[in-house]
Amino acid sequence: MSDSPARPPDGRPRPAESVWRYPRPPAVVSDDRRVLVTCAGVTVADTREAVRVLETSHPPVFYLPPQDVRTDLLVPAPGSTWCEWKGRAVYWDLVVDGEVRARAAWSYPRPTSGYERLTDHFAFYPTRAGLCTVDGEPVVAQEGDFYGGWITAEIEGPFKGGAGTTGW
């Protein structure tokens, strides 16, 4: 069972989910919707066991379990970053048919306390990975391409990440 918002039985869209109601520090919640990542027509990830990170002012970031990701298409990329909540992130290049999509994904091999559910899961930047969908709906990438959030129809902003939003 998912702890994501319930889908109405009549098939209507989910009620709006404001990023300004997300907590700080971020929450980690399960999401059983189908999450699909494709690149150049190749399925990179396909799961119903995603984990979303919900943080105030940010669209959700979807983390996908390694067993549902084509890890053979991922190559370690140089460098890492530090998140005040989740710890050290490492980056992955996505290589499909010889084309390299630099730092298209990231993961937390050893996340900090409270974020252990993210261990070895992969998150993808929609602008770099290709087509990312949630239950068939193509996501819109969070502006600025720093936080990697996925915007779907039920998510309401405004969102941090775009030009002029660093001071929020």
Descriptive notes:
This protein is mainly beta and 168 residues long. The chain has one domain: Metal Binding Protein, Guanine Nucleotide Exchange Factor, Chain A (Beta Complex), CATH 2.170.150.40. It is 2% helix and 42% strand. It has one helix spanning 126-129, and strands spanning 17-18, 27-31, 35-39, 42-47, 50-54, 61-63, 74-83, 87-96, 99-107, 122-124, 131-134, 137-138, 140-141, 150-151, 155-156. The chain has a 4-stranded antiparallel β-sheet with strand order 4-3-11-12. Mean pLDDT is 90; it is low at 1-8.
- Level-1 CATH class name: Mainly Beta
CATH superfamily descriptor: Domain of unknown function (DUF427)
User: Biggest sheet: strands side by side, in what order?
Assistant: 4-3-11-12
Order of helices and strands: EEEEEEEEEEHEEEEE
**Major beta-sheet overview:** 4 strands, antiparallel
The oligomeric state is: single chain
Globally, the shape reads: globular
- The CATH topology: Metal Binding Protein, Guanine Nucleotide Exchange Factor, Chain A
- The stretches of 5 or more residues where confidence is low (pLDDT under 50) are 1-8
The total strand number stands at: 15
Structural class: mainly beta
First and last CA, distance: 35 Å
CATH architecture: Beta Complex
**Whole-number tally of structural domains:** 1
User: How much of the sequence is in beta strands?
Assistant: 35-45%
Instruction: Indicate the percent of residues in helices.
Output: under 10%
Over the alpha carbons, how many angstroms does the gyration radius reach? 15 Å
Give average pLDDT, whole number.
90
Number of contiguous helices: 1
